[in-house]
User: Fold this.
Amino acid sequence: MSSVLLMLCAFYCCNAIAEEQKPGKKTVPSLESSVKILESRISALESRVSSQYASLNCDTGKYDEFMFQLSKLVFFASCTKIEPYLEGHRITVQIGNPHAFNFSNVKGHLFYGKEIWDAFSNQVEISTTNTIRAGTWQTITVVVNPSTAEQMRSLILELSAETASAIQ
Assistant:
């Protein structure tokens, strides 16, 4: 079975090389056209994700896209668990970092309330010593104490990072 798979891979690789070597076929896009493509993709992403807040839905665990404060970098957030804790609640949030940089000294706020307009009047500070590693999901646990179940209906996350470092 593995020899058949190896032969198929070799066949497709040879066809791809032969296709690239046909006369008149452009093999390397120009730098200018690559930059234009990237600029249009970034512009499309910025227009789609224009909020620095992530709305968390703990019922579905669906992620929301948001930008760190003072940046144009897009991140993902998902509420994975909410449970009673002491006189309040413990909320587990996953932060997705699709970038090639690690982010540390992450701080922010979790806003909460019965309705969306209510949420901005109640907040808990978030500070994590963990680094949000490049290309991974990082778990953050937030304790909201005291709180009622009714106040956990609308959760909004806002984050920022003081340090960004390249992967070594």
Observations:
- Strands lie at 54-56, 64-67, 74-85, 88-97, 101-113, 123-128, 136-144, 154-166.
- Residues 1-20 have pLDDT under 50 and may be disordered.
- Helices lie at 2-20, 31-48, 116-119.
- The first strand starts at residue 54 and ends at 56.
